[in-house]
Description:
Blueprint: E1 5-10, H1 13-21, E2 31-33, E3 46-47, H2 49-53, E4 72-74, H3 78-95, E5 101-105, E6 108-112, H4 117-120, H5 124-139, E7 143-148, H6 151-161, E8 169-172, H7 174-181, H8 195-203, H9 209-213, H10 217-224, H11 228-235, H12 243-248, E9 256-266, H13 268-288, E10 291-302, E11 310-320, H14 323-337, E12 344-352, E13 355-356, H15 368-388, H16 405-408, E14 411-412, E15 415-416
Parallel strand pairs: 2-4, 7-8
Antiparallel strand pairs: 1-6, 1-7, 2-3, 5-6, 9-12, 10-11, 10-12, 10-13, 14-15
Amino acid sequence: xxxxxxxxxxxxxxxxxxxxxxxxxxxxxxxxxxxxxxxxxxxxxxxxxxxxxxxxxxxxxxxxxxxxxxxxxxxxxxxxxxxxxxxxxxxxxxxxxxxxxxxxxxxxxxxxxxxxxxxxxxxxxxxxxxxxxxxxxxxxxxxxxxxxxxxxxxxxxxxxxxxxxxxxxxxxxxxxxxxxxxxxxxxxxxxxxxxxxxxxxxxxxxxxxxxxxxxxxxxxxxxxxxxxxxxxxxxxxxxxxxxxxxxxxxxxxxxxxxxxxxxxxxxxxxxxxxxxxxxxxxxxxxxxxxxxxxxxxxxxxxxxxxxxxxxxxxxxxxxxxxxxxxxxxxxxxxxxxxxxxxxxxxxxxxxxxxxxxxxxxxxxxxxxxxxxxxxxxxxxxxxxxxxxxxxxxxxxxxxxxxxxxxxxxxxxxxxxxx
Length: 418
């Protein structure tokens, strides 16, 4: 039985929400979503459709907007965007079971509508139009859609063909895909092909999807390894993964990670302080979720990429979630691998091989009483933070110059919560 998928995207979502909240039409309003307090170099999270019509690109920086364009600057409000996204998800649930919906991002979702077409006595196009109209009438947000015989084609129909259709809906099957998009350029317009992959393909003399399809698979596997498999499948418009597969997937290993971009170049010592804060927050999360780790990874990125990023992975001799133990290991990597003479702009930490505490065997060679005492203290801290707010109890280091925890506790997804 041939499948039918929808991929629905909420057009310029953050900017549209801000316009709707102000009673303005996004297609007639010049508006950007950005934290102007960070200066002219701050990235605009979204620009209204009217701004795009004037040639302003999404994700531009404020200083890149032509000075002759007058516009509204809206401070990001992530709580508000999450609220809208959740409400629109509620619209999807009016039509489909949650088992047939895959939320891809805050403003994009896939639906397997195969078994619903007969139920609603609608064609895929009619059903897509019904949902888009419901979203607009209920929340004032304009949506676009892609319809495909698999998830990949639905996504490509959304990303490439919908924008050329007055209905804002694109439709693809494998034959139509080959007929209309085999020679489409650039390759980076296609899902999961970034600029780096495109450049590598170009060096091989490949500039479109037909080029990938007609290339000897051995050459592609030699260049891209296992990732060549999806490049080959996608070149023919094929995709074996279904929403049911995504719902049933269980990763072989679990990890928890966190990263942040610093507001300015940090010295070695100032960045070391931020690392301590990040490890504490990670430790509290592990304890709160009753998880432990036996391997960690640190990433350090430098100012304007003047030198390659540094960092390393490190195995811990036992499973733990205790802050003092985790911090000792992270600082070991940091002090050993970080360049002390170049400004630091990015820090990323990861706790690998995460498992539940109950699965760990106690050791006779550690001071369990000391560890239990520290865990009890950190659990008490978690309780206070959850009940009173994350900034109601902090460490002294969080008050030092350059510390970021107090500010980041007010953010959602790295942006102002609103």
